[in-house]
Amino acid sequence: MHDISAIRDFLPCATPDAWIGWALQHPDILLIDHAHCEKKAASTALNLMFRYVDRPDLLDALSQLAREELLHFEQVIQLMRQRGVTYDHLSPARYAQGLRQHVRTSEPGRLVDTLIVGALIEARSCERFAALAPHVDEELGRYYRYLLKSESRHFEDYLRLAEQYAGEPIDERVAFFKAVEQELVESPDEVFRFHSGMPGSN
């Protein structure tokens, strides 16, 4: 599938097999946290739209992205209801915060870094849908493949906007955040989440 090859080329590493095994041991948390991730992705896009009202390309791309993420949130919630899984609060993975703590505070660096982080989070989500699809039940596998197809463009949207607003090459910043991302994915985590690292001591 061409969608996943571009994503795998962009990401610094593959999701470790140990994470996939961990996910299969926590099917309810996988769904609950996935729903949270879709909602947070919509929220991230909306926050950027509120903060950068003077950037038409950003408004157009992220408005569409936010609608898609909210639709997927509704779909995951529906899937959970059918399976008797209750949507509830979960503490977030350290993943997104681990990336965002390195975002520069002055513009345009703040916007560029935020967009690069968005690209990595979106790409990793898609890569995990692809990694999980062969191992889960048929209905969920079909849904993950649909999401992969539907959301595979998101990381490219974020990256394109980052390049557009940087005013200079962003290769070094992208490489920096990729290194951070790889460390988060491959280091141990205490609790299982959709974006957690390796199974830790728990």
From TrEMBL:
One of its GO terms (biological process) is tRNA modification. SUPFAM superfamilies: Ferritin-like. It holds the Pfam family MiaE. One of its GO terms (molecular function) is tRNA 2-(methylsulfanyl)-N(6)-isopentenyladenosine(37) hydroxylase activity. InterPro entries: Ferritin-like, Ferritin-like_SF, tRNA-Hydrxlase_MiaE. This is tRNA-(Ms(2)io(6)a)-hydroxylase. It comes from Alcanivorax hongdengensis A-11-3.
